[in-house]
Amino acid sequence: MAEQLEQKEQLGDEGKHVLKTPKGTRDYNPKQMAIREKVFNIIISSFKRHGAETIDTPVFELKETLMGKYGEDSKLIYDLKDQGGELLSLRYDLTVPFARYLAMNKITNIKRYHIAKVYRRDNPAMTRGRYREFYQCDFDIAGQYDPMIPDAECLKIVHEILSALDLGDFRIKVNDRRILDGMFAVCGVPDDKFRTVCSSVDKMDKMLWEDVKNEIVKEKGLPEKVADQIGEYVRVQAGGMELAEKLLADPKLCESEAACAGLTDIKLLFTYLQIFKVTDKVVFDLSLARGLDYYTGVIYEAVLTPLTGRGGVGGTGGGEEPVGVGSVAGGGRYDGLVGMFDAKGRNVPCVGVSIGIERIFSIMEQKAEASAEKVRTTETQVLIASAQKNLLEERLRLATELWDAGIKAEVVYKRNPKLLSQLQHCEDTGVPLVAILGEQELRDGTVKLRNVASREEVDVSRADLVAEVKKRSS
């Protein structure tokens, strides 16, 4: 019966199959892929600049590998159908597979990036860049190092990438899981409620404090007095090193050793961030409480800030900035995750960041649509054209010479195309140069090289054509 209902859903009114992509997924046309490739190149070049190497892992993992690592988000994991073999699930992120990879291969030091698709059974919001199938771009440093040096470099990378992408103004919020846990403890939250209260506080960028408080009291079952004490901390104005110093002087908060250790590390982090020249965009924000269970220390999240209005970080506002895109990068320290997979519980300290490529891509796509600038979908440097008939073989010969020399070249797939239609092809696709062959050029051993934009033409010796195309393309 279930199969029949499923088939019925797939069929239209006249029994025809409806052609569509599954909910929460999309196709990408050449223009969109050209924008996406540009974004990937900027991100990868930053990762490589910081000495990262790359790996790959399977798109699905054993179900037991993924379960119990994501807190309340575990319900969003896609389970594959049980076919009598191993129980499998599609990966939810790239961090847990990375930790499994480290433990399985007994790796204790690596700086790696990984760009691949992940899957979440989430409620999609396609216009905001939230999908069920999407790319993640991760950078992680694994190994035993002195405090906050790798953490600061991860924040430097986020700053570098978001600045290079030119998405508009942004802010990177930082906090520490130990500060949150210490804060919850001194406010009277029972140990077994830390994570669930954490997921409520994490909604403060989307909800008013009164709504968050209501959730903590009514849904999570905590006394109103406890919620009010939490509110006194999480509503403190975001700051920098001075806020960490102020909180270190808070007698109540310093009852917690974990909170004191976290605050001391935040101070050290800001020392390194000043050296890296990124403190203009980084703020210490006690309301940041990234929901994933595996974080153990510093956590951070980058959000775009509206150009106008007072929506605050991640809020709403006017201006040209696409509003409501939310977080565009996030990460943190997860020192205990690898140990979960190791038979002897041996831990490998890790810190990393994930760039929200789909949300970034949504913004870049909107900017491209609003801009008059044409997006090129090919990298062709020159089209080989002919002004007369019966020169197909000569065009193919010249194309071969150019291809063999590493030049990106094209020919029109017709025996006798009109010169106008060949030039129009260049206009439509953005090919900058045309190498025109005719009977006279063949006799003289030359090629007429035309600049498509300026329509200027010069005769170039066939022997010099490769060098001339390279010069004009550089």
Structural features, described:
- The chain is an alpha/beta fold and 474 residues long.
- The protein contains 16 helices and 15 strands.
- Strands 1-4-5-10-9-8-6-7 form an eight-stranded mixed beta sheet. A five-stranded mixed beta sheet has the order 12-11-13-14-15, with helices on both faces. Strands 2-3 form a two-stranded antiparallel ribbon.
Task: Outline the secondary-structure elements.
Elements: H1 2-10, H2 30-49, E1 53-54, E2 60-62, H3 63-66, E3 88-90, H4 95-104, E4 110-119, E5 133-142, H5 149-165, E6 170-176, H6 177-186, H7 194-201, H8 209-219, H9 224-234, H10 241-248, H11 257-275, E7 282-284, E8 298-304, E9 327-333, E10 350-355, H12 357-370, E11 382-386, H13 392-404, E12 409-411, H14 419-429, E13 433-437, H15 439-444, E14 446-451, E15 457-461, H16 465-473
Parallel strand pairs: 1-4, 6-7, 11-12, 11-13
Antiparallel strand pairs: 2-3, 4-5, 5-10, 6-8, 8-9, 9-10, 13-14, 14-15
Overview features:
474 residues; alpha/beta
- Name the average pLDDT: 88
The helical percent reads: 25-40%
Radius of gyration: 28 Å
| Main structural class | alpha/beta
Strand order of the largest sheet: 1-4-5-10-9-8-6-7
Strand content: 15-25%
Shape: elongated
CA(first)-CA(last) distance = 63 Å
Tell me the major beta sheet. 8 strands, mixed
In DSSP terms (H or I, runs of 4 or more residues), the helix count works out at: 16
Taking pLDDT < 50 over at least 5 consecutive residues as the criterion, the unreliable ranges are 307-324
SS elements, strand count: 15
